[in-house]
Amino acid sequence: MRVLGLDVGTKTIGLAVSDPLGITAQGLETLRRKNKRSDFEQLEKLIRDYQIGELVVGYPLGMSGAEGRQGERMRGFAEELGRRFGLPVHLWDERLTTAQANRVLREMEMSIERRRRHVDRMAAVLILQSWMDQKGGAGTAARAAPPNHPV
Questions:
Q1: Which end of the chain is less packed: N or C, by CB atoms within 10 Å?
Q2: Cα radius of gyration rounded to whole Å, the chain
Q3: Could you tell me what percent of the chain has a pLDDT over 90?
Q4: CA distance linking residue 54 with residue 137, whole number of Å
């Protein structure tokens, strides 16, 4: 079974999927958010098409590690995902992921416009990859939400 990583924003959801062995993360097309019903229908299709067995959702913590308003919202979203799809959902600390994604894309010499279109996808890849690295024990530098919050 594969794992689906999500970087959830107000307008888009960055997506990444693991390979079948759970070693590498590949970015998928960013989901443009319309409404909750449409968002869940699109996610359901991805879960079915890629045979997803677990979900990893970026968890926006403050720099101090405290859960703020966005973190509360994401916890609720993750709980709803778990109820709706009957899959394990893990919250994963996403602090500085977007900044790191922008840095990677800038190093690839992407134009500002192309970076804007790809940053959510790259953030989802970074979230999922760091979760898989930590789960496999290889990620000593991986950042876990204290502790790795299963929902």
A1: N
A2: 14
A3: 58
A4: 18
* Helices (H), ranges, 52-96: 69-85
**CATH domain 2-150 topology:** Nucleotidyltransferase; domain 5 (3.30.420)
Q: How far apart are CA 134 and CA 144, in angstroms?
A: 8
Instruction: Identify the pLDDT of residue 111.
Output: 66
Which strands form 25-32's sheet, in the order they lie side by side?
25-32, 12-18, 2-8, 52-59, 89-93, 149-150
Structure tokens at 16: 């990444």
User: What is the C-alpha separation between 13 and 61, in angstroms, rounded?
Assistant: 17
- Beta bridge pairs of residue 56: 5, 90
User: What are the structural domain ranges in the chain?
Assistant: 2-150
Query: 98 to each of 19, 21, 91, 128, how far by Cα in Å?
Result: 22, 26, 16, 13
Mind listing the pLDDT tens digit for each residue in 83-129?
A: 999 999 999 988 766 666 667 766 766 666 665 666 788 889 999 99
End-to-end CA gap in the chain: 19
